[in-house]
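About this split. The held-out portion is used to measure sequence recovery: a designer receives only the structure tokens and must propose an amino acid at every position. Recovery is the fraction of positions where the proposal matches the reference. Here is one held-out target exactly as it appears in the evaluation file.
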């Protein structure tokens, strides 16, 4: 997989566009060896002149193919731009009633988001106040339903 991707640039003309599959499936994304990570990032950087991130759902991740490519020209892709426009509309001028349901295992990662949303939403749902994560994150005194 990697060798065929890395050799692509040699086969592409100077004004061509090249795209690769989702790099999240590459095990080097999460490898712990710093030297191997740097080698992987350098390999990706050599593949092109411009980096476009169109993976909105992965943009928060600290993966080598998202944060480690050192190209001077970087941009958001059309999908990322579209998602940001929808998010801005939802937060700036939401359709009422505005219900937010947050889930996932990493509640601590969402605390700032929850606090920012509380004054904007009509109702919010998150783990029950009796949950250990809820207490650890400082939300034990807040109701899990806000009207």
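Reference sequence for scoring:
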């Amino acid at each position: 997989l990697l060798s065929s991707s890395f050799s692509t640039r040699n086969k592409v003309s100077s004004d061509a566009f090249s795209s690769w599959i989702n790099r999240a499936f590459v095990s080097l994304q999460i490898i712990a060896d710093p030297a191997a990570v740097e080698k992987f990032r350098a390999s990706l950087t050599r593949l092109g002149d411009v980096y476009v991130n169109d993976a909105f759902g992965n943009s928060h991740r600290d993966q080598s193919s998202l944060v480690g490519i050192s190209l001077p020209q970087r941009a958001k892709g059309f999908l990322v731009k579209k998602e940001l426009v929808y998010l801005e509309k939802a937060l700036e001028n939401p359709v009422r009633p505005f219900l937010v349901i947050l889930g996932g295992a990493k509640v601590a990662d969402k605390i700032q988001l929850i606090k920012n949303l509380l004054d904007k939403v009509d109702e919010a749902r998150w783990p029950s106040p009796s949950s250990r994560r809820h207490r650890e994150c400082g939300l034990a005194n807040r109701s899990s339903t806000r009207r």
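Annotator remark: Residues 1-10, 143-147 have pLDDT under 50 and may be disordered.
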